[in-house]
Amino acid sequence: MSQKLRTAAVLTALALPFAAHLEAQTPRTRPVTQAEVDRITRDAILIDTHDDVTSKTVTGYDIAKPNKGGQTDLPRMKGFLGAEFFAVYVGAEYVKDNHSANRTLEMIDTVRTDIIHNHPNDFVFATTADDIIKAHKEHKIAALMGIEGGHAIEDSLRLLRDYYALGIRYMTLTHFNTNNWADSQGDVDNKDVPKHNGLTPFGKDVVREMNRLGMMVDISHVADKTFYDALETSSAPIIASHSSCRAISSHTRNMTDDMIKALAAKGGVIQISFGCDFLSERYYEAAKPLMAELRPKFMEAMKIADPTERDAAIEKLEADAAAKVPPATLADVVAHIDHAVKVGGIDHVGIGTDFDGVGCVPSDLDSYDKFPALTRALLEKGYSAEDIKKIYGGNLLRVMHAVEQQAVALKNTPPIETVYKK
Asked: Which terms does the UniProt entry file under GO BP (predicted)?
């Protein structure tokens, strides 16, 4: 069997389970017990594919201390979280004068030094699905990394390979900015004409090289055409690391039903984001004028040099916003999970909170220690313990295994040497 046929067979096998769980859940008739919730909390490997606390640790925040203005700290992670994909977030401002690579390396270092090295009893460096499973057995949190913003590679496949060697295991192809080889949802949202109509030939080579390395392709933040180009180009399942359902909230960072179906058909997963505007159409519409008013103030606050003063200023702005527009709720999270399961199947939905990366999350699900409430709500909705384990981490582990296996199949393929040309 040719390599192409073997790949097609693997992806077809991955996609088969998704058609079997499209029917609506049957609500429970018997009460959910605390023992059930506790057992799932203990046994499930909760994997969050996107957390931005790194933007705080890189400026000196100690993750072991209470994060009063955010959602992520070690006391609220322990006992609930199995694995964290820490965001190696590289803002668009670093594109100027080619500072993206420098910022990427700083963000990688804050994960490896400030989080893992400084807290070895709680975190363990991980790069594979098996590493995550091993960490769970050892009662530690597996720490992984995903780059947010393809401009981080500065149009160099050599940098992409360097980042993989340093531990990066997924890359979001764009952030809110279109880069030199992929269109972003952010630019299209702002009525800019798509620059590339999806992925350029070099962008497709980026995807192929990610497949060869064993790095997951992440399509959160990309324009819709970029999503379909990436899906067609990739020989391994792809992920949406922090996106929700556009049928419920029309935010264009969310995925349409057709996109969710297509993602599932190739074995991928949509990781539900907890950002209020992604979860709630009510919040999304009400927050638009407020965000237009507050955005310049947030930008000014971000320029404050002192980390303590900066955090205090941002926290005040977030509190002001929350007072004016009530946040989304736990019920909204359940609605998105349930919709994604009905559209794509139980094997293709996961969790990507975007904690510490958005201005608003549900107050009743604003930290990892509140996940038992989500567990209870899903049980009451009719989801089984096995269903919940898949959503919390099992589905993502399957994708990681598939991406790793595809890299093994491509191990004798030479590195792509295409050089970006303007």
From this structure: proteolysis
Q: What is the DSSP string of 349-404?
A: EEE---BTTSS---GGGSSGGGHHHHHHHHHHHT--HHHHHIIIIIHHHHHHHHHH
pLDDT in tens, 6-43: 333 333 333 434 444 445 578 878 899 999 999 999 99
Q: How far is CA 419 from CA 160, 309, 332, 415, in A?
A: 12, 43, 45, 12
CB 88 within 8 Å of CB 53: no
Burial 236-264 (b: 16+ CB within 10 A, else e): bbbbbbbbbbbbbbebebbbbeebbebbb
Residues sharing a CB contact under 8 Å with residue 152, sequence separation 6 or more, in sequence order: 88, 90, 100, 101, 103, 104, 159, 163, 171
What residue segments make up the domains of the chain, in order of their start?
3-280+328-409
DSSP string for 171-207: EES-SSS--SSB-BHHHHHTTPPPSSSSB-HHHHHHH
pTM score of the predicted model:
0.91
3-state helix, strand, coil in the chain (%, to 5): 55, 10, 35
pLDDT tens-digit readout, 321-345 = 778 889 999 999 999 999 999 999 9
For the segment 179-192, the average pLDDT, to the nearest whole number, is 89
Comparing 174-188, 306-320, 323-337, the range with the smallest average pLDDT is 306-320
Q: At what angle do helices 34-43 and 371-381 cross, to 10 degrees?
A: 120
Residue type, 351: I
Task: Name the CA dihedral angle for 283, 186, 244, 342, rounded to a multiple of 10 degrees.
Answer: 120
The closest alpha carbon to 212, from 371, 365, 3, belongs to 3
Q: Which helix (H) or strand (E) holds 123?
A: strand 123-125
